[in-house]
Amino acid sequence: MPIEIATLFAWMLLIVFLALIACMFEDLESDTGSQSNPNSQVQLAAQVGQINRFFNKAISGEAPAYAMYCTIAGVIAFVLLSKGAHPLLALPIGAVAGEVVHVIFSVTAHLGRTSAMKRFEQPIYLDVLYGHLIPIATHGFMAVLCIICIAYIQSNIGTLSGNPGLDHPFALPMLAFIWGITVGAIGSSTGDIHYGTEREFQDRPFGEGKRVVYHGKITRYADCGIRTQKDIVSFCAKYGGPCTGMTFGMIILFENWRTLVGMKVSGYLPELQATAGDMTAIIGIVVGLVIGIVLIAGNVVIVNWARKRYGPFVGE
Amino acid sequence: MEPILLIIVVCVVLGGVLASLGVHLLPVGGAPAAMGTATGVATGTVMLMLGAAMCGLFTASSVAAFSDNILLVSLSGAIGAWLMMGVTMLVANVVYVFGAGVVPVAGRVEVDPITRQLQTPYKTPQCDGHGVPNVCYISGMAGALLGGFGGAFMYFALLNYAHFEATAAGVIAMGIFVANAIIAAYNIGGTIEGFHDPKFKRLPKALITCFVISLFCGVFVVMAATLGGLI
Question: Which pTM was predicted?
Answer without folding.
Answer: 0.93
